[in-house]
Specification:
Layout lengths: L2 E9 L5 E2 L15 E8 L15 H6 L10 H7 L8 E6 L5 H12 L5 E5 L4 H11 L7 E4 L3 H9 L5 E5 L16 H18 L2 E6 L12 H5 L2 E7 L5 E9 L7 E7 L2 E4 L3 H6 L8 E8 L2 E13 L7 E4 L3 H14 L7 E7 L11 H13 L1 E3 L3 E3 L2 E2 L5 E2 L4 H10 L4 E5 L10 E4 L2 H8 E3 L1
Parallel strand pairs: 4-8, 4-9, 5-6, 5-7, 7-8, 13-18, 15-16, 18-21, 21-22
Antiparallel strand pairs: 1-2, 1-3, 9-10, 10-11, 11-12, 13-14, 14-16, 17-23, 19-20
C-alpha cells in the first residue's frame, strides 16, 4: 500500500519541487505557481534494498512482445505500429473533441482479439453502454468498470488479466492516502505513478485520458507528460471540421505522423482523401489560395482565405483563424516594406478552411499571396498550389518534402506549384520557382 512521505511544494508550470512554499519559482521564474503536494511512495518492498538482476540488451529484445493493434489504421500509424505492452499512453484534447468516443472505438476493435478493460471516472456503466450503442460498438468481450480510486484501479491492473486498460480520465482519479481533491497536482502525480507502476509490472498497455487548460496545454503538472511513454493530442474544431490526432511524444516511434478524422453519427471516421474534402466547396476568387502543407508525413491541400477592407477605426484590425496571428502580423509588415502594397490602413482577416491549423513556416508564401490577392482584387494566373517560407527580406526559402507536396497537387489536378527554388538537381516539371515575394506577386497574380 502507498505510504505518505511528507509534503513538498511543486511548481505547476515547470514541475520543480521545494521543501517550503515561496512566492516565485526559482526554476522558471513564474509567480504563485507552487502547489502543496503530499509525496506518496508506490514501493511495495521493504525499506532495505536488494541487488538488481541484470540482463543483456539482446536478451531483453528477445523477450519483447509484438505491438498491440488498436484496430484503427491511422491510430496505429501515429503510435508507430500499435500500443507497446507495458506502455503508458496519454490522450489529451479539448472538451467535446472526441477523446472518449475514439477510445471506446479503440477498445471495441482491440477487444476482438485482446482482453480490454474500460474504466471510467466520469460516466456510469449505463452511460458508456448508451454511447457504445450509438457508436455500434457493443461487444461482450469489452469489460467496463467505474471507479475514481487509484488504489483499486492499480490493484485491478496488477492482476494481469488484461492486455489494454483505458482510464477516463486521470483528473478524476484520487489516491486514498492523500486528502486533497481529485485533479490536484498531488493527486494527478501520485495516481499516475501508482497506475504506471502497476502497468509496467503486469506488462499492460495503459491509456490515460488527460484534460486540457483553457490555453490548450495539458492540465496538471508538466511532470505528467514526462512520466508517460506516449503523449497524443486530439486537435480540431469541436463543432465541426476535421480532427487531427498527433503524436507529441513517443518513446517507441516517430512523432512525425498524424491521423485525420471526422466526427460522424457512428463515431470518429478516418478520412481517406482529406485534400479533396477540404477543397470540394472552394470558390475561386480573389483572396483564395491553395496551400500544400504537411500533416506529419502526409501531404494535405488546404485553402487559405484572406479578406482586406479599409479600416473604419484609427487602428487597423488583424484577425487570424487557423494560423498564428503574430506570424500574420510579421508577414503583413514584410509585405508593406518589401512590396508596393499599402496595408497600414486596412483591416486584414486570414482564415484556414476546414478547422485545420497551420504551424509550419511553409505556409508563409500562401498567406502573403492570399493577402496581396485580396488587397488588389487579383487571382492566380494558374491553377496552382503555393508553399514556401518567407524571410523578413522578402526571400522565399526552401521547405522540406517538396516531392510529396507536388505529388499531392498533381493527384488533385493542379497544373502548377509556386514555391522556392530547388537546391541542386533537376527542377520538377510541376514547380514554378520564385526567389522572392515581390516577383511571385508580379508574375502569378492577374486581374479577374
Amino acid at each position: 500500500m502507498a505510504k505518505s512521505l511528507g509534503v513538498r511544494f511543486t511548481c505547476s508550470n515547470c514541475g520543480a519541487t521545494y521543501n517550503k512554499w515561496q512566492g516565485r519559482c526559482g526554476n522558471c521564474g513564474e509567480w504563485n505557481t507552487l502547489v502543496e503536494q503530499v509525496e506518496v511512495s508506490t514501493a511495495t518492498a521493504g525499506a532495505s534494498g536488494r541487488k538488481l538482476a541484470t540482463e543483456s540488451v539482446g536478451a531483453a529484445r528477445k523477450s519483447t512482445t509484438g505491438r498491440l493493434s488498436s484496430g484503427i489504421k491511422e491510430v496505429d500509424e501515429v503510435l508507430g505500429g500499435g500500443f507497446v505492452a507495458g506502455s503508458v499512453n496519454l490522450l489529451a484534447g479539448q472538451p467535446g473533441i472526441g477523446k472518449s468516443t475514439i477510445l471506446l472505438q479503440i477498445a471495441h476493435n482491440a477487444a476482438k482479439s485482446l482482453k480490454v478493460l474500460y474504466i471510467s471516472g466520469e460516466e456510469s456503466a449505463q452511460q458508456i453502454a448508451l454511447r457504445a450503442e450509438r457508436l455500434k460498438t457493443e461487444d461482450k468481450n469489452l469489460q467496463l468498470a467505474v471507479s475514481t480510486v487509484a488504489n483499486d484501479i492499480a490493484a485491478t491492473i496488477s492482476g494481469g488479466g488484461y492486455d489494454i486498460v483505458v482510464v477516463d480520465s486521470i483528473q478524476t482519479v484520487a489516491v486514498n492516502e492523500i486528502s486533497s481533491a481529485a485533479g490536484n497536482v498531488s493527486q494527478i502525480t501520485n495516481s499516475t505513478q501508482l497506475l504506471t507502476a502497476a502497468a509496467k509490472a503486469s506488462n499492460t498497455a495503459l491509456i490515460l485520458v488527460g484534460h486540457v487548460t483553457k490555453e490548450g496545454s495539458i492540465a496538471g503538472p508538466k511532470l505528467l507528460e514526462h512520466m508517460v511513454d506516449v503523449v497524443m493530442q486530439l486537435e480540431g474544431d469541436r463543432y465541426g471540421g476535421f480532427k487531427i490526432l498527433r503524436g507529441v511524444k513517443n518513446r517507441y516511434g516517430s512523432t512525425n505522423e498524424a491521423g485525420i478524422f471526422e466526427m460522424t453519427d457512428t463515431g470518429m471516421k478516418a478520412v481517406d482523401n482529406p485534400s479533396a474534402a477540404l477543397l470540394a466547396e472552394r470558390q475561386i476568387s480573389d483572396g483564395s489560395v491553395v496551400h500544400a502543407t504537411m500533416e506529419g508525413s502526409r501531404p494535405l491541400l488546404v485553402e487559405v482565405q484572406a479578406l482586406v477592407n479599409p479600416t473604419s477605426y484609427g487602428y487597423p484590425k488583424r484577425t487570424a483563424s487557423g494560423i498564428d496571428l503574430n506570424r500574420v502580423n510579421l508577414l503583413v509588415a514584410m509585405l508593406e516594406r518589401r512590396t508596393k502594397l499599402k496595408l497600414g490602413d486596412k483591416d486584414i482577416y486570414v482564415n484556414i478552411v476546414g478547422g485545420i491549423r497551420l504551424s509550419e513556416p511553409a505556409a508563409d508564401l500562401a498567406v502573403c499571396m492570399a493577402i496581396a490577392s485580396a488587397a488588389k482584387g487579383m487571382q492566380l494566373k494558374k491553377n496552382a498550389v503555393v508553399f514556401g517560407e518567407v524571410g523578413l527580406s522578402g526571400e522565399v526559402r526552401h521547405v522540406p518534402f517538396v516531392d510529396k507536396r507536388l505529388a499531392e497537387a498533381k493527384k488533385l489536378g493542379f497544373e502548377a506549384a509556386i514555391g522556392p527554388v530547388v537546391r541542386g538537381g533537376k527542377k520538377p516539371a510541376l514547380l514554378s520557382p520564385v526567389s522572392d515575394v515581390r516577383s511571385a506577386l508580379n508574375t502569378f497574380l492577374e486581374k479577374d
